[in-house]
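During the second year of the project, the team shifted from modelling isolated chains to modelling whole assemblies. The rationale, set out in the original proposal, was that interfaces cannot be judged from single-chain predictions alone. As a representative example for this report, we include one of the complexes processed in the last quarter. Its constituent sequences, exactly as entered into the pipeline, are reproduced here:
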Amino acid sequence: MKTSLRTHTCGELNAQHINEKVTLCGWIQKIRKLGGMTFIDLRDRYGITQLAFNNDTDPDLCKQIERFGREWVITVSGTVTERYSKNKNIPTGDIEILVSEIEVLNESLVPPFTIEDDSDGGDELRMKYRYLDLRRNVVKNNLLFRHQLGIAIRNYMNHIGFVEIETPFLVNSTPEGARDFVVPSRLNHGEFYALPQSPQTFKQLLMAAGFDRYFQIVKCFRDEDLRSDRQPEFTQIDCEMSFISQEDILNTFEGLIKYIFQTTKNIEITDIERITYADAMKFYGSDKPDARFDMRFVELNNVLQHKEFKVFNDAELVVGIVAKGCADYSRKQLDELTNFVKRPQVGATGLVYVQCQADGHFKSSVDKFYEQADLQVVAKQCDAKEGDLILIMAGKKEKAQKQLCELRLEMGNRLGLRKAGEYKILWVIDFPLLEWDDETERFYAKHHPFTAPKPEHEAILESDPAAVNANAYDLVINGTEIGGGSIRIHNKELQKRMFKVLGFSDEEAQKQFGFLMNAFQYGAPPHGGIAFGFDRMCSVLCNSDSIRDFIAFPKNNAARDMMLNAPTRISDLQLKELGLPLNEN
Amino acid sequence: MKTSLRTHTCGELNAQHINEKVTLCGWIQKIRKLGGMTFIDLRDRYGITQLAFNNDTDPDLCKQIERFGREWVITVSGTVTERYSKNKNIPTGDIEILVSEIEVLNESLVPPFTIEDDSDGGDELRMKYRYLDLRRNVVKNNLLFRHQLGIAIRNYMNHIGFVEIETPFLVNSTPEGARDFVVPSRLNHGEFYALPQSPQTFKQLLMAAGFDRYFQIVKCFRDEDLRSDRQPEFTQIDCEMSFISQEDILNTFEGLIKYIFQTTKNIEITDIERITYADAMKFYGSDKPDARFDMRFVELNNVLQHKEFKVFNDAELVVGIVAKGCADYSRKQLDELTNFVKRPQVGATGLVYVQCQADGHFKSSVDKFYEQADLQVVAKQCDAKEGDLILIMAGKKEKAQKQLCELRLEMGNRLGLRKAGEYKILWVIDFPLLEWDDETERFYAKHHPFTAPKPEHEAILESDPAAVNANAYDLVINGTEIGGGSIRIHNKELQKRMFKVLGFSDEEAQKQFGFLMNAFQYGAPPHGGIAFGFDRMCSVLCNSDSIRDFIAFPKNNAARDMMLNAPTRISDLQLKELGLPLNEN
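Output from the structure prediction step:
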């Protein structure tokens, strides 16, 4: 990284360079005085190098640096010398620069927060001054990781014959799915482009065009109300293949995932298990189970219903999990768990526990309704041993599953079973094709309207839509969905039937997706694909909960860029050219 | 590329596979009958393989394929056999498949144009059915080339320490420069995001953030009236470096260019010449000269003015070029050249020629104004030899330069001097910082408002703006600008002065670029960069005039996607949510 302004970076000098004359550039991380010496930690992207100034031998230089402050940009020349007290924590810790010349390249105001791993800046302040936040090692390293991940993915995909093809950003609006961001047309007032929510239809057209294997790392856009970890613009690794079955896709992308872990984390992934959607819901109450720990759901309807306990008798599902070794939980701890499931985010009305005590006795919160013998059957069915705690919830099936899923994850956290740095990767397969929406009283595509029903279910598409499964699959790492895809419809008639089931008139379907259905008339091959969330993949690989930490310039929860202060008003001239109403004053 | 549906692709079988049982998938390129045999050319991304059907031994199969047509998608199984009449033009030409099983994967209507290198489809038809156009080898190979170029660039940039960082697409509108595409905000009615014309300010912020070396291959947007070879969305290779001088940037990207030529074209580039903007204008009348041929401009004011010819006497510039060996051009040929420069696209009023005849005599269109001796001086000054033709134009300096530049390129074409496959690469350096616009009576930034004046010109920024040069540079290949950049301002005060010269009030500058100027207050390093047009780079490397041929789904000159029919009206519900006026009926 030698340039005309420097001979070395702040990360590369070590004992081998002693006595060399060098020139460095960087930011002042820290200044400290120690007896007759002044030391500056000089920082750049590559590391930190200590600069030394001797007050006795170099009073002029020391005078000059007196007014320097944190984050000033300087260039220094001097001699690499061995350090008296070495710092084993950094690669340059054996040496320091005895400075002979110094020049200020730019001064700096005192930054509004400290540029340290643990900064004193709040979220909003750091977003407003994102260019300073990005100087912090943690954030910088996230973006360096993201870059390396991108390089690894592109090289692997290229290696196995996938072609990266850019698809357009100014496309047409398709009301199905999330809300579109739109772009008014200047040349055709009243008309709009939309920003793509994904290149889905384009990658299918590329299959129709014969590209056989396509991928793209590409920005996508959704104008949705933001949850804490959603962004209006996000990046997708978008992939599609022709002349394949689901098995080909799962194998191909297992290869990618293994390569990614090997290259970026030096972890060998041997096994990616597969679980059906139905089993995932049954055993984990979730289509994205965190399988780093077992703690599977056990249905207890057969044991606990038809006794005296009305809550269980009225429930569609009675279901439990076993917390190993937790039989000695105190009243306080058990209350905490009850309060946890009663929080509005979980929304349960209560929690039943059974403590399998060391003496073979069972103690439960429903002792008055059940005999010891009943609880023994429960324990046996749950495979609970002495010393274990059984936690039971009940209610409408899906609701109870969801609530117990939350409790299971909470117990995983409490018991340290969700270990950072441990990765459990799953394919969840055989998703239902459709899901019913009570509010609008229609079916929606579970994945998207281009997903094919399983061939053996095609016949019941109209007669029993809810029973139709798809060759659709999600890739789940540690309880986070990082990718999903499906085998697509490649036949115009089947696509028409699908749109009909989704409540589209022929005319609407033709208007919105006519170009795709037309393409199907000219020899579209069987095809399918997958898309991974790139931001999410970064955060999961780095054990972070937040995708924002892996985006250089993210937006806040109100979809606002705090640094740019975007969106803003635009000029009346611009509005006029676009045929839009002018600003009110 | 083996999948569950095929054992091989249509491009990989050869004599080594004879007697193997194989399964192929693909599109029917051609069906022909020859005596008792029927042959099908089966095509996929990887090539073409001949399928053979024997009417005598396999009447059932032959019956089945009778209804097949072009572009049907089929899968066939059979045995690889040696071909009787081999086709040396394709890698699979030694073999054919004796088919035993066949299945139709999808039928096809007769395509609206032929899927051949020379298609019978017009531009509009091919754009509407772009997915069929993309099946043609020429277009397909363009996109494969683009992919390989992208991979090469990313790997090289990564190798020399550049980090790819994604910058946002929903940014703020900045009226300086071209017109923005804007995106209405749903959460803040009356406010808009803009799509970036380039990540310029973001890459500068990334330098302020300390990333040292950044690049990105990224979509950019300009809502301009389209010329034949502009697209509203285009792709840029955007790069920036810190702690550098112009020399570092030129050297770094010479490395990239050499690597690109080596990797994608197998051409070793030894020399990238540098020419100042002033010299480029003087010698070629253009800031992007095609230097594959010499034919430099020669100023002739000193010889041809102050004689009898009023046109020359009144001109600011009299300037000529020498067309080697063209002294024997006929009257008709000379008239063609005169007509060429009189076309509205060139806009000259006339053309003067001097034929340096073999006998040492000069014949010119201005014989009545000049002596043979005058013409001899002209020839000498132009270094024209016997047999050469001198072509002379005159007028206002810039206009005459531009017109003679057009004529020079035309002569280059006529004389076959602009050879496809020959590459002449130039850096054009020392651009003026500003250019005056007569209409709005103000200076505009020649490159952009963040370009730094040359340090030695900083003092005259306000007193003589037109005389200020910048460390700004363009990379020109064969007369096409494929990249440009500059050393940037990194100091808030200088940036303020620049905005003032450009006619911004402090308030406007702060409103639009406050975030950048604020960043300069917190220790921005000296930095500079360059951006290459990726679409353009593809087309220049492949000797094509059209960037559209290298874009999967381009828009037409009215910024319309003919295939999608975008832009379109959107629903009243969408308009209402955005606070925009509803559709009129």
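The mean pLDDT of chain A is 95. Chain A is about 30% helix and 25% strand.
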